[in-house]
Amino acid sequence: MTLQQLKYADGVARFGTFTEAAARLFVTQPTLTESIRQLEEELRIAIFVRTPKGVTPTREGDEFLASARQILDDAERIQAKYSGKAVRLPQFAVSCQHYAFAVDAFIQVVKANLSDEYDFTLRETVTSEVIEDVASRKSEVGVIYLSRRNESALGKIFRKHELVFEELYTSKPHVFLGRKHPLAKEMRIKPKWLDPYPYISYEQGADNALYFAEEVMPSIDRKKNIRVRDRGTMTNLILELDGYTVASSGLSRKLNGPDIVKVPLELNDTIRVGLLRRKGNLSRAGAQFAAAIRALVQAAGLAARDAAKDYR
């Protein structure tokens, strides 16, 4: 087993096909295929399952790839320390629902990796793509929420893809609205009081099923609905149209600006925000991201109800 073989295996897992991996790694496909075959033969395991659409790591392959990435990261640090050059371009991707604190954590990862070269990606996207990105290894980590309404459906999807949900914090739902909104000074808000006002929620594309909604109170319960794709647009519509949205109370610093207030919503549900990942060790950047989010949660005085839940 060689470092080159580990790089090849890591590349195939990241890019999803031997063809794409060979092109990205600047090697011929027969060379790449033979290298992986020899590695599997040496280890006496099948690292990948070949399908018409590409390749998928086996359970043993998942465990092997997690260890391989740790070895590649260690090799990079050693070579960087003694030669001044990294052996490979640092890479990391995270997919998340629209949480400002996830952006803050990503920024901390970038600041901690101020080398001459790196290749990082932050995808603030719809719920189904967060799950798909993590399941397919397009992203190493996801940030997503569970509630009474969606946990059963999403839990089945997590189980299908053998994903782990690590709870970061829990919160009761709150209504976010403009400071001048007629309900802004209420101590608590009943859902029916919101009927006259437009509900601003995140559009989920083709997968607009209730369990993919980013809001604990789905739009099907509302009389006036506007769907958007980004946080900036949501804030503008809340202020200009006397609109509102429903989100967790914690870590909403950028949404909860000087012109936005939050009021507890009388709704029997709990928002559980957490990390979504595959089983196994995270890369250095992945571990940095997870640590940064946990630190933000701790600084905000929030707590998780459960430990990490393995949906395998």
How would you characterize the overall build of this protein?
With 312 residues, the protein is of the alpha/beta class. The protein folds into two domains: 1-87, Arc Repressor Mutant, subunit A (Orthogonal Bundle), CATH 1.10.10; 89-312, D-Maltodextrin-Binding Protein, domain 2 (3-Layer(aba) Sandwich). It has nine helices and 13 strands. The chain has helices at 3-15, 18-25, 29-43, 59-83, 100-112, 127-135, 151-161, 231-240, 284-299; strands at 48-51, 54-57, 91-96, 119-124, 141-146, 163-171, 173-178, 199-202, 225-228, 244-248, 260-264, 271-278, 309-310. A six-stranded mixed sheet has the order 4-3-5-12-6-13, with helices on both faces. The chain has a three-stranded antiparallel sheet with strand order 10-7-11, with helices on one face. Strands 1-2 form a two-stranded antiparallel sheet. α5 crosses α9. The longest helix is centred in the first third of the chain and has 25 residues, at 59-83. The two termini are 29 Å apart. The relative contact order is 0.15. The mean pLDDT is 83.
Percent of residues in beta strands? 15-25%
Distance between the amino and carboxyl termini: 29 Å
What is the annotated CATH architecture of the largest domain? 3-Layer(aba) Sandwich
**How many H/I helical runs?**
9
Whole-number average pLDDT?
83
Which radius of gyration do the C-alpha atoms yield? Answer: 22 Å
What structural class is derived from the secondary structure elements? alpha/beta
Helix content: 25-40%
| Shape verdict | elongated
